[in-house]
């Protein structure tokens, strides 16, 4: 896993909370979750997915299975046992595939502003594949500026919008962004959600226009025993727009995760 960039925050011997970013982002999307390391006694590990920012490009398209398997390898490299996994948007779809393919590696699952994939409807799949065309047509700066407007709530500050765009510009590149879009377009986890046995939290910004609350509700309804929570005054990037409220939801879901993990 030396070719995958990641940063970690927290005690080296603490249980791992692996953070998987969205399709237009990078590991730094989780800087606002660093307080969870001390609060929960965990070590945050956030990656640049293969093909993103500082991580090496894969030789060919990975598909959602490939990205999930890369995350599984990272857990094995960073943890002596299973890890709690937090995925935002595309990162949540990757996390879902991860728990389906490698259930023994996931102690708890947190899906934020995510979905079952864009392959649930032909028009959604087509729109997802076309997003990479927009990236080529608009260029990194123009694409980032346009996308950032949709990723936060209407009440978000101009500073946050600029921060989201600035993070996106160095993070995504072709052909990996096209491959990531394709992986979303090919994914539909609804038929398999009932197989998820890990404790699961589904969180969503109440003002999310990309994956609206109803989509997250349906996701939670399909996973046995899943908990559902909405983050007030937040759009698609709830963990960045309202980090304190988002962290509260995680901390409420994972009380004692450090102690329980050490007992395994």
Uncertain ranges? 256-264
* Rg on CA atoms, Å: 17 Å
* Share of helix, binned: 40-55%
Strand order of the largest sheet: 1-3-2-4-5-6-7
Oligomer: single chain
Number of strands: 7
CATH classification class? Alpha Beta
Overall number of domains: 1
Q: Major sheet, described briefly?
A: 7 strands, mixed
CATH domain topology: Rossmann fold
Which CATH architecture? 3-Layer(aba) Sandwich
**Structural class per helix/strand content?**
alpha/beta
User: What share of residues are in beta strands?
Assistant: 5-15%
Query: What sequence of helices (H) and strands (E) makes up the elements?
Result: EEHEHEHEHHHEHEHHH
| CATH level-4 homologous superfamily | Alpha/Beta hydrolase fold, catalytic domain
CA-CA gap between termini: 24 Å
Give the overall shape.
Answer: globular
- For the residues shown, what is the average pLDDT? 95
Number of helices: 10
Could you describe the 3D structure shown?
This protein is α/β, with parallel strands linked by helices. It has one domain (6-263): 3-Layer(aba) Sandwich (Rossmann fold). It contains 10 helices and 7 strands. The chain has helices at 35-40, 63-78, 90-101, 122-151, 158-168, 176-185, 213-222, 238-241, 243-253, 257-263, and strands spanning 6-9, 16-20, 43-47, 83-88, 106-112, 200-205, 227-231. Strands 1-3-2-4-5-6-7 form a 7-stranded mixed sheet, sandwiched between helices. α4 packs across α5. The chain starts with 5 loop residues before the first strand and ends with a helix. 52% of the residues are buried. Residues 256-264 have low confidence and may be disordered.
């Amino acid at each position: 896993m030396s070719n995958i960039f990641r940063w970690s925050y927290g005690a080296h011997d603490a249980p791992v909370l692996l953070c998987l970013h969205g399709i237009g982002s990078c590991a730094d999307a989780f800087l606002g979750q660093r307080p969870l390391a001390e609060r929960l006694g965990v070590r945050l590990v956030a990656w640049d997915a293969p093909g993103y920012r500082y991580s090496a490009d894969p030789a060919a398209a990975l598909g959602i299975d490939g990205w999930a398997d890369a995350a599984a390898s990272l857990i094995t490299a960073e943890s002596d046992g299973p890890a709690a996994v937090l995925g935002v948007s595309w990162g949540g779809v990757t996390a879902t595939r991860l728990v389906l393919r490698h259930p023994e590696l996931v102690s708890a699952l947190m899906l934020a502003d995510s979905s079952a994939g864009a392959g649930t409807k032909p028009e959604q799949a087509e729109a997802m594949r076309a997003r990479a065309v927009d990236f080529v047509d608009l260029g990194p700066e123009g694409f980032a500026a346009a996308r950032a407007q949709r990723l936060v709530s209407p009440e978000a500050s101009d500073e946050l919008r600029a921060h989201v765009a600035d993070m996106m510009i160095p993070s995504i590149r072709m052909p990996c962004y096209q491959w990531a879009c394709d992986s979303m377009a090919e994914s539909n986890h609804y038929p398999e959600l009932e197989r998820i046995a890990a404790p699961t939290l589904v969180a969503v910004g109440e003002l999310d226009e990309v994956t609206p609350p109803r989509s997250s509700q349906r996701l939670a309804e399909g996973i046995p025993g899943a908990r559902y929570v909405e983050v007030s005054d937040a759009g698609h990037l709830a963990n960045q727009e309202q980090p304190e409220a988002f962290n509260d939801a995680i901390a409420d879901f994972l009380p004692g995760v450090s102690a329980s993990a050490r007992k395994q």
